[in-house]
Design a protein that fits this description.
The complex is a heterotrimer. Chain A is α+β, with helices and mostly antiparallel strands. Chain A folds into three domains: 185 residues, Aldehyde oxidase/xanthine dehydrogenase, a/b hammerhead (Aldehyde Oxidoreductase, domain 3), CATH 3.90.1170; 316 residues, Aldehyde Oxidoreductase, domain 4; 114 residues, Aldehyde oxidase/xanthine dehydrogenase, molybdopterin binding domain (Aldehyde Oxidoreductase, domain 4), CATH 3.30.365.10. Helices cover 30% and strands 25% of the residues of chain A. Chain A contains 19 helices and 27 strands. In chain A, strands 3-5-1-12-9-10-11 form a seven-stranded mixed sheet. A five-stranded mixed sheet of chain A has the order 7-15-14-13-8. In chain A, helix 4 packs across helix 5, helix 13 packs parallel to helix 14 and helix 16 packs across helix 18. Chain B folds into two domains: 72 residues, Ubiquitin-like (UB roll); 79 residues, DNA polymerase, domain 1. Chain B has a five-stranded mixed sheet. In chain B, strand 3 and strand 4 form a beta hairpin. Chain B is globular. By secondary structure, chain C is an alpha+beta fold. In chain C, 30% of the residues lie in helices and 26% in strands. Chain C has eleven helices and 14 strands. Chain C has a five-stranded antiparallel sheet. A four-stranded antiparallel sheet of chain C has the order 11-12-13-14. Classes of the chains: A alpha+beta, B alpha+beta, C alpha+beta. Chains in contact: A-B, A-C, B-C. At the B-C interface, strand 4 of B face helix 2 of C.
């Protein structure tokens, strides 16, 4: 079947696929959030403009919440609506709705809120450098095996800073809530990754005031990248309350400026690494990592990001002795949340830079150093999980080969001798654990449903959303391929909590890896049970037995055990692996790095749909490159950004040639793909700059301003 | 004020505030939802339409600009022969991911095919440089446009 | 906000001559619509001028080319007159705006906007462009070099508008040229530094040089003092430190969300030195 085409691509191109704002209904009114413009303070007074007819508006305050004023998260500490005190800019205070969108916008603009301002932290370094700001979760992975540090070992110690990153999905956040008074049901349509998260959000908000809550996604979800994992619960809660109070369907679609200002971002990180390397063997004998994330004003899902972060930050290296400490820090910015990679990009950005730092200090090549330490079969993760394959080595060797690394390394060094501008080439490694961390998939116990219709149509019911990654096409393809059923005779139900069982959230690179493989298993079991050659013919012959509904739950293999206390055991059953070579051109006059070519080799196991997989990888790699090169959200002294004019995404003219190769594609298992492309490209870019100029920069992104400042300080 | 213009080949008359954005006119008054709003300040191209045959971001065009002019949106252009061919090219290479930016890319590419259509990658990049895509990394979009250029040549 | 649609230039100028409030002009709308959205425009008289014929078109008259204020970037990019006489200006234009904005954005709008970062002014400055300003009192010509007087301030009187830009067809003749716009990305970007330069070098001597910068002062400007120092000097006699010293008095870059003043200054210096062929 190979690369079947996405069933939704044509309607998306011709504009007929419906995104959230494209849904209309007759008596729909428009809602919005009045949010804090103060970083931390006590609300003293709220002034509404007097040139509006206040009675036309619907307002909801914290006091109006029938359920609990808590957004349910891994840590339930975030409020739907502020009570007296605001803890971050962008914190929702009032929900408001009006039949006319323009009137609503003009009204909100004229509202003034007085605050008694309290001390606030919005600066990333001020937050992360000060241990006093630590709050909430702390994780330690203690794999120290020796007491003594040999005199001959070479110590390398450094601190790395990683910025916020904005998901910048093209479709802004939006939701429509409709309260059916007769049945006491709230129906929510939303652009979101995880319908069941939204459901528990709205249930928490509405409590016993409603009998049921049903969530359905919009047909199109215009990009998410993690940004529509947790924030939609907050938005849907407020919108539902507005609908409940007004008795009308309410639509909220955030303006881009508001979306950028108040939604979650990638966590800024400060990672400090101390390592000891044996110069004789080039083996890194001991490593100590202090991994800190700026969680924002509330913990929300940050502990989960922290967990994945500490489990990835040591990189693809077999360190015999390691100690990792992960902590969350509090600031007065909106809670940072999920973003493709989920703590791993920060970890690799630091670790892969550190590896090149050690090599530079020891005057050996980065390739030698990586080869001496890269995961071999039998090595251990800091969690003591055994590495049982050498696929990372294969990725590494392959990327060096296809990029012609050694030859270019020499020729660039030669070229650089006679030119003011510089060329550089750099490498990085990465990996990503598929599915939820540790025992997470066991707890989730995801359920899928398949209905075989009388006409031999297969209907797939899962809660996993297609936000552009092609999940629904690929899931259908996996079921069909397993039993040679025609793809055209397969449909995937739009996720709806009253129709699709809870197959878990669309996160953690788990959709194909967990749900897709589960569908495949179900198909194979079906074939085994009914002993058919073709499902279609079987259904025709035994038509009275159909329609037939089948359900299956994911059972985590018993071999997978993870101790959440000691952080030992199997953190992830399967890992995807990757290696990258980036080539850059450094413009000496403007201190700008230009991306020339990005070479990437990935092992994601079996590739179900090559075209879709390549598209995913290309997009993720560009996000990763931009993370290293140009994307940042906060500038000391000047604050946070507010729109697409300031937050500059790469255009068609800013991108390198991206080459991707998948290896070990004949494996049985299709592993995770969603996040790994984002995890590793940034440090290869930073290392290419180091190779080009000899200048070490430990702060991402490598903007021309940072480069100039570093050069000036070194002189 | 009364605005008269040609929308996807049909003459229409609309009572509108002079500064109302063309984007809002298309979506609210004509329910043409293919034209999307993402940034609202001309920085992303999701709302691209043709105004008198030239590409514009409809979020920065006002009703009064449109009076007496010709507006073509994705809904109209996608039904033309060239439009259908282009859709096939995008589909074949799996160029589309979330799709929110795509009507904009479609319109920009349509204009490029009609007015240049050269296979050169640098020219294609330039022609699409007003449209932002966050999902794809653009590589597959370039591939599709190259195929479309070649097919258009053969078709001529 | 009072909305007006004058039927021709005369009516517009009549209106302006009696207007009491602040006047805003809707031409291509690429900038003013963003300002409306961000609420920078609150109250005033709003004039739709995009279809006033007298303000449109590229016309050659003897040794001059008149570019109407409403000429769009797209028209400039597609104009044979411009490509024949001003290939440097045309090349510079390709760096300005995305293909979607060039359809509507006008040359007059970009200048009148008066932003320190406006793209079109630096190349026009080195081409010694003149502006035609018009009011009921008639037309007056002012050189673009003297047009701006401060941050978003100019010689334009309340009852005047820019009618067009006047260029001498010899303006680019015989010069080596440079236009560099440095931004966060290659397009859809606000310049951190912009530099335009024309030079004539004969036998190792600078015969003539013109330099203009954007995004480095309260408004785009020519580097008069630096030009004075560089004109008629042997390249080998140029002192880098002198350039640095003069430049430090002529540009006043700032730090903001987009860039830093130190960076802006240094990049401007580097670009000038490279344009002069001086190692640094």
């Amino acid at each position: 079947m190979g690369s079947v085409r996405k069933f939704d691509s044509k309607p998306k191109i011709n504009g007929s696929w419906k995104f959230l704002d494209d849904y209309q209904s007759e008596d729909m009114i428009y809602g919005n959030i009045i949010y804090s413009k103060c970083h931390h303070g006590i609300i003293k007074d709220i002034h509404f403009p007097n040139d509006f007819n206040i009675s036309e508006f619907t307002f909801v305050y914290a006091k109006d919440i029938p359920g609990e004023n808590i957004v349910p998260e891994p840590v339930s500490d975030q409020l739907f609506l502020a009570v007296n005190e605001v803890f971050h800019y962008g914190q929702p205070i009032i929900g408001v709705a009006h039949p006319n969108k323009v009137t609503l916008t003009n009204f909100i603009k004229k509202i003034k809120i007085d605050y008694e301002e309290l001390p606030a932290i919005i600066d990333i370094k001020e937050c992360l450098d000060n241990e006093k700001n630590h709050f909430g979760r702390e994780i330690t992975i203690d794999h120290r095996t020796r007491d003594e540090i040999q005199n001959s070992w070479i110590r390398h110690h450094n601190v790395y800073y990683m910025p916020h990153q904005e998901q910048a999905y093209l479709e802004p956040q939006g939701v429509i809530a409709e309260y059916d008074k007769q049945d006491g049901i709230i129906f929510v349509r939303i652009t979101a990754q995880c319908p069941y998260y939204v459901k528990s959000g709205v249930e928490s908000m509405m409590g016993s005031a409603v009998n049921d809550v049903v969530i359905e996604t919009s047909e199109g979800i215009g990009g998410a990248f993690g940004g529509k994992e947790d924030f939609p619960s907050l938005l849907a809660g407020i919108c539902s309350l507005l609908s409940y109070k007004s008795g009308k369907p309410v639509k909220i679609v955030l303006d881009r400026e508001d979306d950028i200002k108040i939604t979650t971002k990638r966590h800024p990180a400060r990672i400090e690494i101390e390592s000891y390397t044996d110069p004789a063997t080039k083996k890194i004998e001991k490593i100590d990592i202090d991994y800190r994330l700026d969680a924002g004003a509330y913990q929300t899902l940050s502990p989960v990001v922290l967990a994945r972060g500490v489990l990835h930050t040591a990189g693809g290296y077999g360190f015999p002795d390691s100690f990792i400490r992960g902590r969350l820090f509090r600031s007065n910015t909106p809670p940072n949340g999920a973003f493709r990679g989920f703590g791993a990009p920060q970890g690799f950005a630091a670790m892969e830079a550190h590896i090149d730092g050690i090599a530079a200090e020891m005057d050996i090549t980065t390739i030698e150093l990586r080869k001496a330490n890269i995961f071999n079969n039998g090595d251990e993760f800091p969690t003591t999980q055994k590495v049982t394959e050498e696929n990372l080595i294969d990725c590494f060797n392959k990327v060096l080969e296809i990029s012609d690394y050694q030859k270019k390394l020499k020729s660039y060094a030669q070229w650089n001798k006679n030119h003011k501008d510089k060329k550089g080439i750099g490498v990085s490694l990465g990996f990503h654990g598929g599915g939820f961390t540790g025992n997470g998939e066991k707890t989730l116990n995801s359920e899928i449903k398949v209905v075989l219709e009388k006409n031999a149509e297969v209907k797939i019911f899962v809660a996993n959303t297609d936000m552009g990654q092609g999940a629904h096409t690929t899931l259908a393809q996996m079921f069909c391929e397993a039993i040679d059923h025609p793809f055209e005779k397969t449909k995937v139900q739009l996720p709806n909590t009253s129709k699709t069982p809870n197959s878990g959230p669309t996160v953690a690179s788990r959709t194909i890896y967990i749900i897709g493989n589960l569908l495949k298993q179900l198909a194979l079991e079906l074939k085994k049970k009914y002993k058919f050659d073709k499902l279609e013919s079987y259904i025709i012959e035994h038509n009275s037995e159909f329609p037939l509904e089948l359900r299956k739950n994911y059972i985590q293999p018993t071999s997978v055990f993870f101790d959440e206390e000691s952080y030992r055991g199997i953190a992830y059953k399967d890992y995807s692996w990757a290696a990258c070579v980036n080539e850059i051109y450094f413009h000496a006059d403007t201190y700008q790095i230009e991306l020339i070519e990005s070479w990437n080799v990935l092992d994601i196991g079996r590739v179900v749909n090559e075209q879709i997989a390549l598209g995913q990888a290309e997009g993720g790699i560009l996000q990763g490159l931009a993370y290293g090169l140009s994307e940042f959200f906060y500038k000391p002294g000047f604050g946070r950004m507010s729109g697409f004019t300031d937050y500059t995404l790469p255009t068609t003219l800013d991108i390198p040639k991206i080459v991707i190769e998948f290896i070990h594609t004949d494996s049985v298992t299709a592993k995770g793909l969603g996040e790994i492309p984002m995890d590793f490209p940034a440090p290869a870019l930073r290392n290419a700059f180091l190779n080009a100029t000899g200048i070490i920069i430990d702060e991402y992104p490598l903007t021309p301003e940072v480069i100039y400042k570093t050069i000036k300080e070194q002189k | 004020m009364k605005i008269r213009f040609t929308l996807n080949g049909k003459n229409v008359v609309l009572e509108s505030a002079p500064l109302k954005r063309l984007l809002d006119i298309l979506r609210e008054d004509y329910h043409l939802f293919g034209t999307k709003e993402s940034c609202g300040e001309g920085e992303c191209g999701a709302c691209t339409v043709l105004l008198d045959g030239k590409p514009v971001t409809s979020c920065l065009v006002n009703a009064i600009h449109v009076n007496g002019k010709k507006v073509d949106t994705v809904e109209g252009l996608s039904k033309t022969k060239l439009g259908k061919m282009l859709i096939d090219c995008f589909d074949e290479t799996n160029a589309v991911q979330c799709g929110f930016c795509f009507p904009g890319f479609f319109v920009s590419t349509y204009y490029y095919l009609l007015n240049d259509g050269d296979n050169d990658l640098e020219k294609i990049k330039k022609a699409l440089s007003g449209n932002i895509c966050r999902c794809t990394g653009y590589q597959r979009i370039f591939d599709s446009v190259k195929i479309a250029c070649a097919r258009k040549k053969v078709g001529e | 906000m009072q909305f007006n649609k004058p039927k021709d230039l005369n009516e517009l100028l009549e209106n302006l001559s009696i207007s009491q409030k602040k006047n805003y002009f809707l031409a291509g709308g690429t900038d003013i619509n963003v300002q409306i959205k961000k609420e920078f425009i609150k109250d005033g008289n709003f004039y739709y001028i995009n279809e006033i014929d007298e303000l449109n078109g590229i016309k050659r008259k003897n040794e001059k080319v008149h570019v109407g204020a409403l000429t769009t970037y797209r028209e400039l990019l597609e104009s044979d007159t411009i490509s024949e006489h001003f290939p440097f200006l045309q090349r510079s234009l390709t760096n300005f705006a995305s293909p979607l904005l060039t359809t509507m954005a006008t040359i007059g709008g970009n200048i009148a906007n008066g932003s320190p970062t406006n793209d079109v002014t630096p190349p026009l400055l080195v081409l010694d462009a003149e502006l035609e300003l018009i009011s009921v009192a008639g037309i007056r010509n002012v050189s673009l070099t003297s047009f701006f007087t401060g941050y978003k301030k100019s010689l334009l009187k309340k009852d005047e508008i820019i009618k067009g830009v006047v260029l001498s067809i010899q303006a680019e003749n015989g010069y080596e040229t440079l236009y560099k716009k440095v931004g966060a990305r290659k397009t859809l970007t606000i310049a951190k530094v912009a530099l335009a330069g024309l030079k004539k070098i004969k036998e190792g001597k600078i015969d003539e040089i013109k330099l203009a910068v954007g995004s480095l002062n309260e408004y785009p400007r020519r580097l008069d003092k630096l030009e004075e120092y560089l004109n008629n000097i042997m390249i080998r006699d140029i002192n880098k430190n002198t350039i640095d010293e003069i430049l430090s008095k002529e540009i006043t870059p700032i730090s903001d969300l987009r860039s830093d003043k130190e960076y802006r200054y240094r990049v401007c210096l580097n670009l000038i030195l490279s344009f002069l062929g001086i190692n640094h």
